[in-house]
Amino acid sequence: MKRRNLLRALAIGAPLATAGAVGAGIAAADTANFKVMATEQVANKVMVFDKDKSFSDANRYKSWSPGTGGWSNLSDCRIRDTAQFGAIGLAAASGGKVGIWNITTEKDQELNDVLWSATPGGNPHALERIPNVGAFVSASSDGYLTVYAPTKVSDPSTLAKVQTVSLAGAHGVIWDPNNSLLWAAGNKTVQAYSVTGTYRNTRLKAHSKKVALSGLGHDLQADFSNSSLLQVSDSYGVYSINKTTLAKTTLHTTTRIKAYVKMKSGEHFYIRGDNAGSRDWGSPTVVFSQSADRTRSGAEFYKVRYYTTAYN
């Protein structure tokens, strides 16, 4: 069986979980016709599309273009809800920057919509928000997490670096609201961290929860079909991790999966590095298990997400 067909054949039964969200055009629940957001590194944009339409300029729902320099090679995107701004976008770029932007009614947004940015260094690959304390954590593949904390939760301009935590090969971070833990994927490991303190005293502390991987962890995401699980990809495959028991289940052994999303409906979609072109870690195609694949000519997608503010 071809690797793509193997992925299409996956059908893991699990309890259903509601995915909440806030904002016009942002999913309030998992529906059959959902939107996806992706980092496209050639145009260097975060782009949002209806998954049932071609990924053309004419069909784009929204885009965000931060420019190049420290924003080059966008490596992560996601959206989260805030009391002050509503939905905000989070991004990390291998050029060196991480930051957040205000998602407005504009169809195409730019650098002037940025609310806050920082330069953690070390090839940033992910950024996550810790709710309530309003802190942000970035993952840099050179081997560390960086914690940014505010003096005022509603004002991102007050964010400042308060901690650096070593994690070899750090690539992915995600907040777990059910257990109040931050999970991070690195080289051959997924590590949980507890969060202590508030405001500028916010700190991460390594938790006893830790799961071994076979290779370098690439992506770490919620399982929207089961809030007790995480989805993680590494150099050799995609796995499901039970956040309570730490049991790891191999979903498949397809290599170079850079992003993988599992929906409530059971549909999954992913990006696989195609080993071609100047960005051999990316691909012009987002593959769907129950829908038509979407290819954007000349594009290099690296990360893909479900367009929702829900953590799980």
Automatic annotation (TrEMBL):
Cross-referenced InterPro entries = TAT_signal (IPR006311), WD40/YVTN_repeat-like_dom_sf (IPR015943)
**What name has this protein been given in UniProt?**
Uncharacterized protein
UniProt source species? Glycomyces sambucus
Q: State the superkingdom.
A: Bacteria
Q: Does the keyword Signal apply?
A: yes
Among SUPFAM superfamilies, the record links this protein to: Calcium-dependent phosphotriesterase
Give the Gene3D superfamilies listed for this entry.
Answer: YVTN repeat-like/Quinoprotein amine dehydrogenase
Q: Which UniProt keywords apply?
A: Signal
- What is the taxonomic lineage of the source species? Bacteria, Bacillati, Actinomycetota, Actinomycetes, Glycomycetales
Query: So which residues are the signal peptide here?
Result: 1-24
